[in-house]
Design a protein that fits this description.
It comes from Aureibaculum algae. The protein is mainly alpha-helical. The chain has a single domain (about 10-75, about 85-165), classed as Ferritin. The chain is built from 5 helices and no strands. It has helices at about 10-40, 45-70, 90-115, 120-150, 155-165. The radius of gyration is 18 Å and the shape is elongated.
Length: about 170
Amino acid sequence: METKSEFLSEAMVKLLNYRVEQEEYSSRIYLAMSTWLDDKGFVGASKLFKQYSDEEIVHANKARKILLANGLRPVTPALKQPKQDFLSLPDVIQSALAHEQEITRQCYALTKAAHDEGNFMVVELGLWYAKEQAEELSKVQYLLDRLEAFGEELSMLRRLDDEMGQLVS
């Protein structure tokens, strides 16, 4: 494998490998949330967060493929253990929002760095990530809006859990 690319600077390679790492870590965060939810009886929410976990691997593969297409082997990252315990379903949803906001900031930084370098291949990828992040933020905001509109009583959380299960595609 080459260690240099005609179209990717060392800075871009580092940012793309970081994107792989962060998307895979996102998958693990959502898997931990899914497992906690399942353990606490929130079966619908658990299925939805498992789906989110699976989607994050797809996101990681986008950056991985750009590296491979340029003759570079992506780094398979070591990942830290995500948080394992949560206070409640609303806590999981709030944690997901905070995480997606951080990922959005990271994706904007990737896109800006690529734009500043004039690397249109990575700009295009960054724009794809930005579009995905708009969707991710919207999904979590919808859940927060449901909590705000209907409250956090157990009967409402059960209904929200059922609704979240119906969102699984």
